[in-house]
Amino acid sequence: MIDLPVLFIHGFPFDSAMWRHQVAALSRWERIVPDLWGAGLVNIPAAAGPFSLAEQATRLVGMLDDLQVDEVVVCSQSMGGYITFELLRTFPARVRAAILCNTKATADTPEAKRGRDTMAATAEREGPGAIAAELVPRVLARVTQERQPAVVREVTTMIERQPVYGMVVTLRALRDRPDSTPLLGQIRIPVLVVAGDDDQITPPAGMQAMARAMPGARFMLIPEAGHLSPLEQPEPVNRAIERFLNEL
Q1: Which of 35, 115, 178, 187 could lock 42 by a disulfide, CB 3.0 to 4.6 Å apart?
Q2: What is the pTM of this model?
Q3: Crossing angle of helices 79-90 and 53-66, rounded to 10°
């Protein structure tokens, strides 16, 4: 299975650059690293109308079809994990194994839904810089903010370059995503769950409970990492991913 491609699915409000350390380290495997619709260089036309994470999953499968790739290992972060659950729900034959970084299976609470709407309004009114100012302190571990100024700058710049309309429709899609908790017990593929010990958005206790709900899933806690563990602590994350891939 060494040649099995790895599909990297980034989180919000980021783009494929968040996986740069993994892309460099996992050179033995074919790596498929797209910008999602509405992120990075892939803008959403304003006339596109409503949009969902299920549609993101369908678009990714269309991309795999174009590449003539039947089956992948999916490596995802946050929103990417929600899209992974959509793939497992609708296209399970396309996913050989999954690596779920800093994500959760539950839907948004009413309070979180209101927060999505508020953030969408902020993006429309003030632009992506305001979103970066709000999110960077929440997505990075406190030790990252104190000791890794280059990572703080990189994450800030990544958020600031996202297209506003893409941010807005993606926030609405995140708000309206389904609860994937009932799916967990049905997942029979190998799964690696990677958590940051200082993740304020998807705390490690919840991620460990999610891992326990999936038969045979493995849990890995990354020290000194927040919600962006693949970018904050790439070396231990890369080692965990490589070990997982080698065992498939």
Answers
A1: 35
A2: 0.96
A3: 70
pLDDT of residue 40: 83
Average pLDDT over residues 100-114: 98
Residue at token pair 């690293």: 33
Yes or no: say if 74 and 194 are a contact pair by the CB < 8 Å rule.
no
Rounded Cα–Cα distance for residues 39 and 58 (Å): 16
Chain segment 47-93, per-residue pLDDT in tens? 556 689 999 999 999 999 999 999 999 999 999 999 999 999 999 99
